[in-house]
Design goal:
heterodimer; A: about 110 residues; mainly beta; 4-stranded antiparallel sheet; B: mainly beta; 6-stranded mixed sheet; 11 strands
């Protein structure tokens, strides 16, 4: 069974530029999550989708971050414009049921904002 | 914060020794999960223990949960150099009639020396 795929793996941009990350969850997984992991900290949930609907985006900085999950499969997370403090690893995860169950993580995208 | 907090922040041991990591949390939970993260990689699910369970085993892993003390421990027996990684506890918190998000702690960095 293929795992969660993410791209790109690394991205370096200058502040005020925009960037987009892509995630393909495990086939059949209805729930998809985007996390932000700052160096030395644990992952923090940004947004959770159930199929193609948003379930929880309370921690998403909506003035600069946006995410969508078209057709309930792939998802993209966008930052526009980026700030220095957005430098982090962006992790995508999926689960077959709700958020309280086992989540399967992708390798992450490491973002550096200069 | 509802996050789990791991203790210690860093742990360094020799191969063959046992490693014990602790996690404390603040609110009632549905379940508690432990994840491992190798440097530069995504998180890998290790074990899930539900609030009505007290102990669970998986291979060389033993997890305990004490809901009265709001704490959990992860024991890795006969550690190997390949166990070197960061270990995170994550709590699944009840929210109304549905499960809420997962809250991750800051992690314990385990180093196992050959």
């Amino acid at each position: 069974e293929a795992g969660v795929a993410q791209s790109p793996r690394y991205k370096i941009i200058e502040k005020r530029q925009s960037v987009a990350f892509w995630c393909n969850p495990i086939s059949g997984h209805a729930t998809l999550y985007w996390y932000q992991q700052i160096l030395g900290q644990g992952p923090k949930l940004l947004i959770q989708f159930q199929n193609n609907g948003v379930v929880d985006d309370s921690q998403l900085p909506k003035d600069r971050f946006s995410a969508e999950r078209l057709k309930g499969v792939d998802s993209t997370l966008k930052i526009q414009p980026a700030k220095l403090e957005d430098s982090a690893v962006y992790l995508c995860a999926s689960s077959s049921s709700g958020p309280g169950e086992t989540q399967y993580f992708g390798p992450g995208t490491r973002l550096l904002v200069l | 914060s509802q996050q789990g907090e791991e203790d210690p922040q860093a742990l360094s041991i020799q191969e063959g020794e046992n490693a014990t990591m602790n996690c404390s949390y603040k609110t009632s939970i549905n379940n508690l999960q432990w994840y491992r993260q190798n440097s530069g990689r995504g998180l890998v699910h290790l074990i899930l223990i539900r609030s009505n369970e007290r102990e669970k085993h998986s291979g060389r892993l033993r997890v305990t949960l004490d809901t009265s003390k709001k704490s959990s421990s992860l024991l890795i027996t006969a550690s190997r150099a390949a166990d070197t990684a960061s270990y995170f506890c994550a709590t699944a918190v009840n929210r109304g009639s549905t499960l809420g998000r997962l809250y991750f702690g800051r992690g314990t960095q385990l180093t196992v020396w050959p």
